[in-house]
Amino acid sequence: MSKTKVSSIKAKAKTSIGTRKESSLHRSLKFQYSGLGGETETLTGDYVCDACTAKGELIEVQTGSLGPLKEKVGTLCLNHKVRIIHPIIAQKLIELCDAEGKFLRRRKSPKKGSIWDLFKALVYAPNLPLLDNLTIELAVVDIVEKRIDDGLGSWRRKGIRIADRSISAWHHSVVLKKPKDYFQFIPFKKNERFTARDLGEKAGIDEGLARKTLYTLVKMGLVERPGKLGRSYIYSRSY
User: Fold this and answer.
1) Among candidate residues 178, 173, 174, the one with its CA nearest the CA of residue 220
2) Pair 66, 28: CB distance under 8 Å
3) Cα–Cα distance between 158 and 31 in angstroms, integer?
4) For residues 130 and 122, is the Cβ–Cβ distance under 8 A?
């Protein structure tokens, strides 16, 4: 890699906090997991990582799909320990302000998250958990989502935009280090057959999320799909 490219990446690492549109949620997790003696916005090879702990573990905070991390994390894991921090939003409080920033009202979102929401993000990168040196950690938190009614947001929210997300409460974390750790998402015994609907009912999640979960677990080799029952696929644990 040329000296010019290295200098460019270092400059990006130094200035990215100020220039990148980063939510308070992302920033809080980045500093939390960098730990005592760690650093944020660190240059590693061709990549700028969110953080690096004092022990050398690289930290990547990803609030959305894990798909964009496939190439980056795959490369970093060849020579480094990497931890992906994925927040799970247990409860969301929505605060609405007008275009001038004046507070209007607040309400609790009716949607409540669970660790099963991981598979909404992991379905786009189902082979990530198979990488050596990779840990995925779910940080279960409550957040405050600040919205501004200034006409610049999504049409789905009638022009109201999301200005920031910040952590209001920490609950716990779930550490997924090895493929076997994902067996907690298969609440069935060996040789017991089940459908996506069965998983949804047992886990308390909708069938769509159950299908994403099973797709991911099949790709990971933890679940097999031996056949169909009518129009529904049948699944079973691989071991």
Assistant:
1) 178
2) no
3) 34
4) no
Name 61's bridge partners.
85
Instruction: Give the per-residue pLDDT at 154.
Output: 84
| Rounded Cα distance, 30 and 74, in Å | 20
How do beta strands 58-61 and 39-44 pair? unpaired
Tokens (6 digits) for 205: 């999640």
Domains of the chain, by residue range, sit at 3-177, 185-239
Rounded-to-5 percentages of helix, strand, coil across the chain: 35, 35, 30
User: Per-block average pLDDT, block size 10, for the chain (239 residues)?
Assistant: 39 43 94 96 95 98 97 98 98 96 95 97 98 98 96 87 96 97 96 96 97 98 93 94
What span, in angstroms and rounded, lies between the C-alpha atoms of 89 and 87? 6
Of 131, 3, 11, 33, residue with least CA distance to 75: 131
| Residue pair 62/118 in contact by the 8 Å Cβ criterion | no
Tokens of 216: 């991911």
Q: How far, in Å, are 99, 209, 236 from residue 212 at the CA level?
A: 38, 5, 15
**One-letter identity of residue 193:** R
Secondary structure (DSSP) of 147-167: EEESS-S-GGGTTEEEEEEEE
Residue 216's nearest CA partner among 99, 118, 95 is 118
User: Looking at the domain covering 185-239, what would its CATH class be?
Assistant: mainly alpha
3-class SS at 32? helix
Q: Identify the CA nearest to 83 among candidates 22, 18, 29.
A: 29
